[in-house]
From TrEMBL:
Transmembrane segments: 28-48
Keywords (A to Z) from UniProt: Membrane, Transmembrane, Transmembrane helix
Organism expressing this protein natively: Weissella muntiaci
Source lineage: Bacteria, Bacillati, Bacillota, Bacilli, Lactobacillales
Entry protein name: DUF4811 domain-containing protein
Pfam families: DUF4811
InterPro entries assigned: DUF4811
Amino acid sequence: MIILIMIVFALATFATWAFVKQTTTRIVLGSVLMVLLALSVVGLTLNFSNHFGMEKVSTTKESKVYSASSASPAGMLITQRLGTKADNYVLVYSKTADAKKPTTFGVPDKKHISTAVNERTTYRLTDKTTATAKTVTTRWEWKNDFYRIMFGVGGQGGEIAKRVKTVYVPKTTWVVLTAEQAKQMQASQAAAQSNPTVAAAQQAQMKTAVEAKVAAYMQANPQASQSQIQAATKTATAEVAAQAIKQSLAQ
């Protein structure tokens, strides 16, 4: 609509200055039309440069996430930092518990670079017991139908102003590692499995640690049901596995 209005004002301004013979009328009407034309141009310019007539609207989506690998009782989040200092990562994890392979998130879309620069993927360690992903998407939307009809010429409505995906992983039952560390862990596990003596010793050590944690839980919760004990055992197993992986990576 604004383009049509600008054309009308431009033609009217030209016609006024060119064909209106009465000086006072020509000057007054021509000046008013020039001001209106200038305001139209300014409004369109501000819309494109500063989103005039629009406002930011945010939506939040949350979902559970699952380990990038089923090889360990501990959850695994594989990361790759984008840049050297930015809190922006490529993250690898599974979207469902029965996923056959993990999914990669946060890879910049080179075909839509203008949108990609407004998107960020990161992670946080948390005291929660469940890993989740929270995506906050902020879009530019029209304040009302007047602005949409007036300036909606370039498909600006719904344009992404910012999108941040944050994955929250439990600090005690999950391990955050780089792709290189994941390869090292796999190699270490393969080497251990190839040596029955080492594998048996690791399993025995892990079993002892888990049993100690479960015993402590049962002592603190003598009325715990069987399902609660099973849940505590699962958590203890994940904690022990996560601690073992962290110690292995630190060596």
